[in-house]
Specification:
- With 456 residues, the protein is α+β, with helices and mostly antiparallel strands.
- The chain folds into 2 domains: 335 residues, Bira Bifunctional Protein, Domain 2 (BirA Bifunctional Protein, domain 2, 2-Layer Sandwich), CATH 3.30.930.10; 93 residues, 3-Layer(aba) Sandwich (Rossmann fold), CATH 3.40.50.800.
- Helices cover 41% and strands 18% of the residues.
- It is built from 18 helices and 16 strands.
- The strands form 3 sheets. An 8-stranded mixed β-sheet has the order 1-5-6-11-10-9-7-8. Strands 13-12-14-15-16 form a 5-stranded mixed β-sheet. The protein has a 3-stranded antiparallel β-sheet with strand order 2-4-3.
- A hairpin with a 5-residue loop joins strand 15 and strand 16.
- Helix 1 packs antiparallel against helix 6 and helix 15 crosses helix 18.
- The longest helix is centred in the first third of the chain and has 20 residues.
- The chain is elongated.
- 36% of the residues are buried.
Length: 456
């Protein structure tokens, strides 16, 4: 029997210890910012009932759902004569891997509403799955870091999310631009060109603008039934220029006949005002009329974040959804949230060399091994460092020092400690800084305090 070649599914990845340490740096940084604004962490199952997921992401989103084949005698009572029907897939697959964290969050809110105090501010950091075509920056399995507040229509939450984005990427040292639009404004635009009934087609088309260009989008929209006149009227709207407030003023005139569009502009003006009062520093905010976000549940403000100095897709996105919980029976419960794409953020930080040196380290201090007697004297000293919160380990055997040094470097350790025959007599350790090459002597009694002071 042939031995299978080790492999993993396309669009998934293994992570080595250094990579995982960097990912945890991302997660920990984001968590700290979320908690500063009063958000609490929850988790939901990897699998949801397929009925929970289907129909919530639009037709294109539904095609990207990973369906889970029911276990056991899953074909019992199922007509297997026609294997190409959606009904058959539904009968065989009662569950699916979650596509995002927002719809499961809506299900969670409805299911646990009696235990929740509204407005409910939650964050969630878990993997999601999409049956997409793998490519650079796009994976089939990836983590999302979601932050949402539900049970409030206050636009203060939109402004707060903008500040959270600014703070997260400030801590990462990353220059980003937050693009913002409003689905009510997009509806007003659809009304203004005479195709309010084609709102979904128009937003799906606009959402592809960065990928396929305006001419291809126009061709696609005409294929959906829009006239050349309507497409020509849409183009200058999408290309409006000026400051955010100037764009709002121009749209006041263009959308004068649309009550919904005017309401969207009111919301945008209020969000910008709140954000200014909260103090957005170091991040550009752009009112981008070409931003549509194809997910069908958005009803108000929509967000997308792009890295300024690294070529990759959006690294964060979200928006307002007025009645997502209504699909599960809890109506009139508005929410807004934004998701941070941890995998793309990792690629940006790695590509721009923005991870701090300690982010990839799994060990702070390695004790060299010079023999049985020296090792036995080292063990309580290493344990003393651990008791002080310093990650330390003892090399397990008396190998050549070069090999032990290479091991310490591979673990990302900053310090290599030597306790040989002379150090054992004098009860003084020789501490070598691997990065700088400097070294000094530290007494056994001071060793724990020494490292707890220099390793934060």
């Amino acid at each position: 029997m042939a031995i299978p070649k080790p492999s993993i599914p396309k669009g998934t990845r293994d992570f080595n210890p250094s990579q995982l340490a960097k990912r945890n740096y991302i997660f920990d940084t984001i968590k700290r910012v979320f908690r500063l604004y009063g958000y609490q962490q929850i988790e939901t199952p990897t699998m949801e009932n397929l009925s929970t997921l289907m129909g919530k992401y639009g037709d294109e989103g539904d095609k990207l759902l990973f369906k889970v084949l029911d276990s056991g005698d899953f074909t019992k009572g199922v007509d297997m004569t026609n294997t190409n029907t959606p009904k058959l897939a539904t009968q065989l697959c009662g569950k699916g891997l979650r596509y995002d964290l927002t719809v499961p969050f809506a299900r969670y809110v409805v299911q646990h509403q009696s235990d929740i105090v509204f407005p409910f501010k939650r964050f969630q950091i878990q993997p999601v799955w999409r049956a997409d075509r793998p490519q650079k920056g796009r994976y089939r399995e990836f983590y999302q870091c979601d932050v949402d507040v539900i049970g409030s229509t206050s636009l203060l939450h939109e402004a707060e999310l903008i500040i959270i984005v600014a703070e997260v990427f400030k801590q990462f040292g990353t220059s980003v631009t937050l693009k913002i639009n409003n689905r009510k404004v997009l509806f007003g635009i659809a009304e203004s060109i005479g195709y309010a009934d084609k709102m979904v087609d128009i937003t799906v088309g606009i959402d592809k603008l960065d990928k396929i260009g305006l001419d291809a989008v126009n061709e696609e929209l005409m294929g959906k039934g829009l006239t050349q006149e309507a497409v020509n009227a849409l183009r200058p709207i999408l290309e409006l220029s000026g400051t955010n407030s100037e764009k709002i003023d121009q749209l006041r005139t263009i959308l004068s006949a649309s009550e919904t569009g005017q309401k969207g502009l009111d919301e945008m003006a209020q969000i910008f005002d709140y954000a200014e009062k909260l103090g957005v520093n170091g991040m550009e905010i752009e009112f981008d009329l070409s931003l549509a976000r194809g997910l069908s549940y958005y009803t108000g403000a929509i967000f997308e974040v792009k890295a300024n100095d690294f070529v990759i897709g959006s690294i964060s996105g979200g928006g307002r959804y007025d009645d997502l919980t209504g699909i599960f029976g809890l109506t009139g419960t508005s929410g807004v949230g934004i998701s941070f794409g941890a995998d793309r953020i990792y690629d940006v930080l790695e590509g721009l060399n923005l991870f701090p040196a300690e982010a990839g380290s799994t060990t702070d201090v390695v004790f060299a091994n010079f023999g049985e007697a020296e090792m036995c004297a080292t063990l309580p000293l290493a344990q003393g460092l651990r008791d002080s919160g310093v990650a330390a380990e003892v090399y397990p055997s008396n190998q050549k020092i070069k090999k032990q040094f290479d091991y310490a470097e591979a673990k990302g350790a900053t310090y290599l400690v030597f306790i040989g025959e002379n150090e054992l007599v004098e009860k003084v350790a020789t501490v070598k800084n691997i990065v700088t090459g400097s070294q000094e002597n530290v007494s056994f009694t001071d060793l724990s305090n020494y490292f707890s002071m220099i390793i934060k």
